[in-house]
Amino acid sequence: MVKNGKILIAKADEKELFLLPKMANRHGLIAGATGSGKTVTLKVLAESFSEMGVPVFLADVKGDLAGMVCEGSGMEERIEKFGLSDEGFSYKKFPATFWDLYGKNGIQLRTTVSEMGPILLSRILGLNDLQSDILTIAFRIADENGWFLFDTKDLKALLNELSNNNKDYAEEYGKMSPQSISAILRSVVSLETQGGDIFFGEPALNITDFFKTDTDGRGMINILDAQGLIGNGILYSTFLLWMLSELFENLPEVGDLEKPKMVFFFDEAHLLFKDTSKALTDKIEQVVKLIRSKGVGVYFITQNPKDIPDGVLAQLGNKIQHALHAYTPADQKAVKAAAESFRENPSFSTFDAIMELGTGEGVISCLDEGGIPCICERAYVLPPMSRIGGIDDSMRDNIIKSSIMYSVYANAVDNDSAFEMLKRKGILDAKEAEKAKEEEALRKAKEKEEAAQLKAQQRAAEAEIRREEREKEREAAAKKRAAKSVASTLTGTVGREVGKNFGKSFGKFGKTLGGNIGASLGRGIIGTLFKS
Ligand SMILES: Nc1ncnc2c1ncn2[C@@H]1O[C@H](COP(=O)(O)OP(=O)(O)OP(=O)(O)O)[C@@H](O)[C@H]1O
Ligand SMILES: [Mg+2]
Fold it and tell me: Are 374 and 344 in contact (CB under 8 A)?
């Protein structure tokens, strides 16, 4: 509850332990064994932030946070013990918006594939380093080509495009083995089979929709139903991580404010760091460090502080440690580490206290005005003002449907994105290929025709040459013949003349000897002699 502008968390005899709103962005830790009181402490904090007008986000892992929309009950013993009624404590219900990645127990919470980004998506898809690199390149290609990646359909279309036109992309982006692309595709299909495709699409969550207050100015308590989600630790933690990075990317720098702009509770935080690469752990550490100056406080809730990497743990200024058991030497080591993370109170042993704490009791240390951790105190956390536990379905349904957010996010829309764009590109490519094929056929036909024409011209030219040669030969022959015939005419005439004269003489002689026979004979013999 809020007292004098500060969050009263716990009481011990006369002592009151406060969380200072201006130090609430220095993050926090709520740790403790099962049943030790972590969830109730989270509720107490969330209620106080809401009362101060600070919206919160929390994941309801066991379904026992939904009751925040109802007034509490049954806390009389604690109320009395700490005289809380006199302090203004009363049972209250709080404004809440229910969200659900599966869209059943809350308003559908979605993001787009591109907003999730390749690093977090690789984690969800369980990709190895090589596949993760390929996915990063695929995102770059999509970006450069203006192909929007909204849902898993878009992602599959993109992967198919890269696989089908592998060589085209290899030159600019390096070789992406089709086997690796297929492996990524299979992971996407497997995510779809598990119903994971429902988280991706539009309308995607506008993170500023978490920053709402009700008509009384109380901060909205955004409750993510994580009952089904917790079965898939990677998906659950990656989504929360995505939200954190969205907050980080979208909020402006504000420095230290009088109270945070928003508080983010990360329940079952050990899941966040389970099977997480060093690179991602470093990123989480960086986001946690930097988000502070954006006015966002992050509170990790986990069984054992050792579940959280040292680099992150060191940044959690406000700590509430509930009971831890120490049955084994390993347990004892964990308790020792938890105890040593506190500023020792000389009046008791932190190590012993952690093992002795009762339900709803904790070893607590928050930051003082100067940002220095206070000496730890052992105290009882206040009871919650709202109901511990769940709510029935019809009540939940009413709250969901009456939320203004329901009208914004209930129905998915399938906007024009990579799937449609690549389909069009495919049709275009096919048309272009067809056109190119036709052009090639035309070009070949033209080439053939030209070759035929050339051949015909060559043949004609050759024929002409041959004709000319023959002509020349004929002329030469004619000349030759002409020369011969001149010669033969000459010789013929001479012969004839000689023959005639000789014949005449011989005729005369023949006549004398025997008439015409003798003349003919004489002409024939002399003619033949000259002709041959
Ligand atoms: N501050 C408190 N005031 C009153 N009752 C409390 C308080 N803290 C815890 N309790 C009681 O203890 C029960 C268990 O607490 P809680 O559910 O917070 O444990 P938890 O540490 O979250 O356990 P788990 O790890 O199983 O989730 C509560 O249902 C409530 O009855
Ligand atoms: Mg709990």
Answer: no
CA of 373 to the centre of ligand 2 (A): 25
Across the strands, what pairs with 11? 16, 380
Write the pLDDT tens digit of every residue in 424-453.
Answer: 887 777 777 788 888 888 999 999 999 999
DSSP conformation class of 206: -
Does some domain include residue 119?
no
pLDDT of residue 530: 40
pLDDT in tens, 217-228: 999 999 999 988
Convert the pLDDT of each residue in 155-190 to its tens digit: 999 999 999 999 999 989 998 999 999 999 999 999
> Does residue 411 share a domain with residue 425?
no
Question: What pLDDT, in 10s, does the model give residues 346-356?
Answer: 999 999 999 99
Atom of ligand 1 nearest to the CA of 381: 1
Is the pLDDT assigned to residue 495 strictly greater than 60?
A: no
- Domain assignment present for residue 215? The answer is yes
Same domain for 105 and 180, yes or no, is: no
Kindly state whether residues 361 and 443 are assigned to the same domain. no
pLDDT: which is higher, 512 or 13:
13
Q: In terms of domains, do 153 and 277 share one? A: no
Which residue among 39, 230, 304 is best mutated to probe the pocket of ligand 1, counting the most ligand atoms within 8 A of its Cβ? 39
Pair 378, 363: CB distance under 8 Å: yes
Residue 121 counted as domain residue: no
Alpha helices in 55-151 (DSSP H): 76-81, 113-125, 129-145
Q: What is the DSSP letter of 255?
A: -
The amino acid occupying position 332 is: Q
Give how many domains the chain has, as a whole number. 3
Could you tell me where the beta strands, DSSP code E, fall in 314-424?
A: 318-321, 361-365, 377-381
Q: Which atom of ligand 1 is nearest to the CA of 322?
A: 21
Q: Which of 415, 449, 465 is the last residue of a domain?
A: 415
Q: Does the residue 115 lie in any domain? A: no
Q: Which residues of 194-209 are buried (b: 16+ CB within 10 A; e: fewer)?
A: eebbbbbbbbbbebeb
Name residue 100's beta-bridge partners. Answer: 108
Atom of ligand 1 nearest to the CA of 40: 18
- Tell me: do 279 and 411 sit in the same domain: yes
- The span from the CA of 327 to the CA of 325, in Å, is 6
Nearest residue (by CA) to ligand 1, atom 16, is 37
Ligand 1 pocket by Cβ (under 6 Å): 32, 34-40, 62, 75, 78, 359-360, 381, 383, 388
Range of the domain at 176: 126-192
Backbone phi and psi for residue 464, each to the nearest 5 degrees, phi listed first: -60, -45
Q: What is the pLDDT of residue 91?
A: 96
Report the pLDDT value the prediction gives residue 86, as an integer from 0 to 100. Answer: 85
Please give the distance, rounded to the nearest whole angstrom, from the Cα atom of residue 282 to the centre of ligand 1. Answer: 32
Considering the domain architecture, whether residues 221 and 171 belong to the same structural domain is answered as no
How many angstroms does the Cα of residue 489 sit away from the middle of ligand 2? 141
